[in-house]
């Protein structure tokens, strides 16, 4: 870490117990102990590694055999209780095959011929695992696409005062359909319900994925009518529930500048503003209207154009539950806000579904979430073994297992987690290593009860991914510092693995605590946050691909944004080797990289970093690229290098004007 900028990043209002300002680069660091010797590791290259029996890790084979044997016995017990469980049958079959394979390998290691057989078996097994992993990646991407489908209904007051917003919807709808299509490779289904006052006509268009049909329908909708101030909102709500909702994501956007009829929905006095002070003349009940919409699994959002509708939506929320307000003060921003909400809804759906996919047929540990921090003086101190990743020194180090070092320490951990993510629970804690003072930390424990998902190697992979991302972030910062005067550094939190000495099954990843609001800027399947768009972080993912010659890419960027810094954790890595980080299941390989570039918009940061546009449809060598071929260049395609300009890029890109970012840069 370059100390010239890490020590200057402070948040004066947050000071930790050790005197370091909270949520700064320094506050997410542990004291690193680089003097320790490393544990030996084995090279990933099978052909270069398995040259003699001495190169086979007999202890590792023995440990794996014992683990599989215990797992086999436990699954037999489960199967006796549930003999019709097909998933258990498949698991037992694969476990039995693995046990036989290890036993066979062990018996063959004494001869050269036997070693050759082992090498062939390992290669065959790797080939099978590669096929299986490709299938899993395809399934994840299919699930992501299915969960990207969205029904979006505009519920709009179409009286005369709404003319600007009706017209804005007509003229801007292409921006919405184009953006959703380019982000998720699927067209949104659009519907429109327009209401006016009692006994005035409704405008209803059921769902269609044809933008032209939607736009043509809107062109014949006129903003007119409206007798008194209040409108016939109930007829609009009634019509919404009668539409053909079908997709997994369902969003209703209610745009209005006047409340519905009924004294308890507004602050108006007398009949001048509300002819029907007693409420809906058809005596329809709000509770039934709201529940009919809620039962359809619809996310309800509103755009209130003045304060007169506030009381109405308070009444709606009391029955419906949460109704999100989108803030729009200018018709030109209408569709942009709706795009952001639609994208956020889809991203949430994809995340939840992929989490369910990863945890299918797996039970989750039973914890009760408890947000309050415990009294640390009352908690037991546990002795722990600590595993650290020794930071890599060069890019080539990233393509081999990173070196480890060991030490001991002590922890205090809250009895209940305060949060749950898609894969892990998070606990408040305090941590001391090498007799250093206790510091506030977060302990992360894998959520699944599956013994295979809770092994030390799974935790080690998470730790290794974070160490690689940390190394690349520091390299990226150095590159930024060379180009920009006011660059924004990216810092990944230090992380260690701890294992309780009394109960070795208790394993955690430990990190220093962050306190600011949490954000997620992109995911590992091409999703990007439009609400919190960051040109720096998108450029970082692009840069990691270029810097590693297309072999690695850091994605799933999440953490906190403080003054002039991004503090991140829990990344994912796409690798050209699909079996690297196979246990964490977040490496989607070249297809994951392709998903990133499908939605990536090269910014000025990419341009100044001299990053090439990437054609993922064919193989190429980034290390021999031409420096003249950069983002936003006008140079034509290079046949030799398969690098293309923005205009000729195979990937659909989002118009830069559709994105907002607060990051401004000054060149050195």
UniProtKB/TrEMBL annotation:
GO terms for molecular function: ATP binding; protein serine/threonine kinase activity. The keyword Lyase does not apply. Residues 368-614 form the Alpha-type protein kinase domain. Keywords: Kinase, Secreted, Serine/threonine-protein kinase, Signal, Transferase. It is found in: Secreted. It holds the Pfam family VWA_4. The keyword Aminoacyl-tRNA synthetase does not apply. Gene3D superfamilies: MHCK/EF2 kinase (3.20.200.10), Phosphorylase Kinase, domain 1 (3.30.200.20), von Willebrand factor, type A domain (3.40.50.410). This is Alpha-type protein kinase domain-containing protein. It comes from Rotaria socialis.
